Amino acid sequence: MGENTDPYLALGLPATATQPEIIRAFRRLLRRHHPDTRGDNGKGVAADDQLQRILSAYAVLRDPRRRADYDRDHPKPMHTPTDTPRAGQAVHVHRTPPGRIPQPPPPLWAGPVIRDRPSGQ
Which of 10, 47, 51, 87 has the smallest number of Cβ neighbours within 10 A? Predict the structure, then answer.
């Protein structure tokens, strides 16, 4: 995953998303962008790049430790007025420690999409 790619944006989720929300978003996007289900006959460099971004984002967010590391190293800007620090209030910003080497994500494999069959078959 590129340094400037936010896994939350790649999956269309807020930073406060729960694990079930992350899984649902990943599966929804995987069905939409998987080569077996998209309408371009499984071809297209842009579609493949989008699929790789989705897989990389899920690789970060599926593991609680890697997600916590990402959240610590990439603080989110404050969006709501209630989150804005008041005058004189301390603001803590997490920074990556010097000499820390990020670990590469484990390989992910996206198998064929299995569609639900109606009961009784």
Answer: 87
CB 77 within 8 A of CB 56: no
CB 24 within 8 A of CB 18: no
Helical H segments across the chain, by residue range: 7-11, 19-33, 45-61, 64-73
The Cα 4–Cα 49 span in angstroms is 15
Dihedral sign, Cα of residue 53, residue 105, residue 60, residue 84: negative
Q: Which amino acid is at 118?
A: P
Q: Which residue has the higher pLDDT, 11 or 92?
A: 11
Chain centre to alpha carbon of residue 50: 12
Whether residue 26 contacts residue 54, with contact meaning beta carbons closer than 8 Å, is answered with yes
List Cα–Cα distances, 117 to 73, 89, 120, in angstroms. Answer: 43, 57, 9
Question: CA 113, CA 106: separation in Å to the nearest integer?
Answer: 21
